Amino acid sequence: MILFRQELGDVLREARRSQGRTLRQVSSDARVSLGYLSEIERGQKEASSELLSSVTEALGMPLSFLLREVSDRIAAAEGMNIPDTVPEGLADDTESLVGAY
After folding, report:
1. Structural domain range at position 75
2. Residues 42-84: pLDDT tens digits?
3. Which residues form the HTH cro/C1-type domain (predicted)?
C-alpha cells in the first residue's frame, strides 16, 4: 500500500540531506520539535499544512515543489505516466474555471 505520509517523509529527508543539513538544524529553523520532525520524515506522523509550510520554508523550497514530488512518486508507484506538459486545451479550460470564481 502506498502511504502519502511515507512518500512525504522521504522527500523531506532527501531535500534536507541534499543540503547537508541536520534534522536539528531544520527543526530549529522551522520551529518544529526535533522528535516530531523525525517522525514526519520516517512517515510515522501526518503533517499539518502549517507544519509543511514551516518546514519547506526552512528548507528554502516551495510547498508546491514538495507536493509535486510526492505526487509524482505516488503516480509512479501506481504505474501512472504523468506528462510534464499541460495537454492542449486544458490550460484554456482551467482559466475559464478560475475566472468563474
Report:
1. 4-99
2. 999 999 999 999 999 999 999 999 999 999 999 999 988 776 6
3. 12-66
- Cα 47 from Cα 53, distance rounded (Å): 10
What would the 3-class secondary structure string for the chain be? Answer: CCCHHHHHHHHHHHHHHHCCCCHHHHHHHHCCCHHHHHHHHCCCCCCCHHHHHHHHHHHCCCHHHHHHHHHHHHHHHCCCCCCCCCCCCHHHHHHHHHHCC
The amino acid at residue 89 is: G
Q: What is the pLDDT of residue 96?
A: 47
Percentage of the chain beyond pLDDT 70 is 81
Closest to 42 in 3D by CA, of 78, 2, 77, 8? 8
Query: Can you tell me the distance from the alpha carbon of 87 to that of 93, in angstroms, rounded to the nearest whole number?
Result: 11
Q: Does pTM top 0.70 for this prediction?
A: yes
User: Could you tell me the CATH number of the domain that includes residue 42?
Assistant: 1.10.260.40
